[in-house]
Design a protein that fits this description.
Elements lengths: L1 E3 L3 H8 L4 H8 L3 H9 L11 E3 L5 H4 L7 H6 L12 E7 L6 H18 L4 E8 L8 E3 L6 E4 H11 L4 E7 L3 E3 L9 E3 L5 E4 L1
Length: 201
Amino acid sequence: MQTVRHSEQTLKTALISKNPALVSQYEKLDAGERRLMNQAFQPNSDLFGPITVHSRSDWITSHPEDPQDFEQFFSDPYRKTPSPEKRSIYIQCIGSLGNTRAISEEYIKWLQGYCEAFFYGLTVKLLAPVPVSATRCSFRVNDSTQNLQIHAGHILKFLKKKKPGDAFCIVGVTMIDLYPRDSWNFVFGQASLTDGPGAVD
């Protein structure tokens, strides 16, 4: 087991920028918001806590990625940003999220609150839940797990059609396994950066 932990200096290098646009945004923050931002550099902060790698098959070790600092993220020409006309995140439940309707509703309310806090300034709206059959997507039974799985790409097409005009994005949430193609065992989620739909299980 391995723990990935970043030093205060590493975090400052990754997060602090002299980009005038970012400096201007930082200067607009109030004192409380600045305190929250500064917590990111503290070794014991919850914002960038250590990551425990349990085995070589964990995502972080089996799928290495090039590092990206905040300025690179901010300057990415493909990064979508909300506009005055598109400032809503829509959540679409697909199938049941729990053993009872009350559990499903409690979970989705928690998810809505989390998204509103994380994506501060955007409105998070809930669409009426739909059964899996409403998506008309392909499905299969996984040979190894014997679990029902639904095709993630088909879910994205369904969500794209349901995406309201004021939506920054629409997220489909399901407790059913997803798979992106026949050769894959499963996938945690899939999204389209250009069209704005995403699906997670």
